[in-house]
C-alpha cells in the first residue's frame, strides 16, 4: 500500500493507493510510505482543484465497502462541481432511506475526490467527516461557488 500526504488550503490531505486504484483519502497526515505515479497524479489533480483549474477528477478509484456504499459513492461522484443534492434526493433516486444515505456519505472513504461535501440535509448542511467537520464542508462549497445555497 502506497500513501502520500501534502498541504491543501483545507489542511493536510492524504491519499492511499492499493493495487492500481485509490482506496482512501482524507484530511490527516500519515507517514508517507512511498509515492507512485497514480498518487502523484492524484496530488496534482487535488492541487489543481484548489487552484480553480480542475472541476472533475479523473482517477482510478476503488470503494471498499458494501454494494450500498459503492452505489451511494457512485451517485455522489455524479454531482457536478458547484451543485448540491440532499440526502433525501439521493435516497429517492436509489430507493433507500435518507438516514442510510447519510451514513454512507459519512463513511465515504475517498472524500473530496468523491464529493460527499456536495450532499446536504433537507434543513441545512448535514455533517462532514473532514478534520474540521462542517467548516471544511463550507470551505469546499464556497470554493465551488455553491455557498449561496447556504445563505
From TrEMBL:
Primary location: cytoplasm
Keywords in alphabetical order: Cytoplasm, DNA damage, DNA repair, Methyltransferase, Transferase
SUPFAM superfamilies referenced in this protein's UniProt entry, alphabetically: Methylated DNA-protein cysteine methyltransferase domain (SSF53155), Methylated DNA-protein cysteine methyltransferase, C-terminal domain (SSF46767)
Domain Methylguanine DNA methyltransferase ribonuclease-like per the UniProt entry, residue ranges: 4-62
Pfam families: DNA_binding_1 (PF01035), Methyltransf_1N (PF02870)
Chain ranges of the Methylated-DNA-[protein]-cysteine S-methyltransferase DNA binding domain: 67-146
The species this protein was found in: Pelagimonas phthalicica
Other known facts: This enzyme catalyzes only one turnover and therefore is not strictly catalytic. According to one definition, an enzyme is a biocatalyst that acts repeatedly and over many reaction cycles.
One term of GO molecular function: methylated-DNA-[protein]-cysteine S-methyltransferase activity
Compartments in which it is found: Cytoplasm
Family: Belongs to the MGMT family.
Its biological purpose: Involved in the cellular defense against the biological effects of O6-methylguanine (O6-MeG) and O4-methylthymine (O4-MeT) in DNA. Repairs the methylated nucleobase in DNA by stoichiometrically transferring the methyl group to a cysteine residue in the enzyme. This is a suicide reaction: the enzyme is irreversibly inactivated.
EC numbers for this chain: 2.1.1.63
Entry superkingdom: Bacteria
GO CC terms in record: cytoplasm
Designated name of the protein: Methylated-DNA--protein-cysteine methyltransferase
Residue positions of the active site: 116
Catalytic activity annotation: a 6-O-methyl-2'-deoxyguanosine in DNA + L-cysteinyl-[protein] = S-methyl-L-cysteinyl-[protein] + a 2'-deoxyguanosine in DNA; a 4-O-methyl-thymidine in DNA + L-cysteinyl-[protein] = a thymidine in DNA + S-methyl-L-cysteinyl-[protein]
UniProt GO BP: DNA alkylation repair; methylation
UniProt keyword DNA repair, yes or no: yes
Amino acid at each position: 500500500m502506497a500513501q502520500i500526504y501534502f498541504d491543501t488550503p483545507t489542511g493536510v490531505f492524504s491519499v492511499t493507493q492499493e493495487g492500481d486504484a485509490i482506496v482512501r483519502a482524507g484530511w490527516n497526515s500519515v507517514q508517507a510510505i512511498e509515492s507512485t505515479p497514480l498518487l502523484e497524479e492524484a496530488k496534482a489533480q487535488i492541487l489543481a482543484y484548489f487552484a480553480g483549474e480542475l472541476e472533475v477528477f479523473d482517477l482510478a478509484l476503488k470503494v471498499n465497502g458494501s454494494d450500498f456504499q459503492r452505489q451511494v459513492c457512485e451517485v455522489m461522484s455524479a454531482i457536478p462541481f458547484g451543485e448540491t443534492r440532499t440526502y433525501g434526493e439521493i435516497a429517492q433516486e436509489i430507493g433507500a432511506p435518507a438516514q442510510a444515505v447519510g451514513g454512507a456519505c459519512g463513511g465515504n472513504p475517498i472524500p473530496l475526490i468523491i464529493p460527499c461535501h456536495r450532499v446536504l440535509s433537507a434543513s441545512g448542511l448535514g455533517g462532514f467527516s473532514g478534520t474540521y467537520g462542517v467548516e471544511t464542508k463550507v470551505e469546499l462549497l464556497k470554493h465551488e461557488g455553491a455557498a449561496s445555497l447556504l445563505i
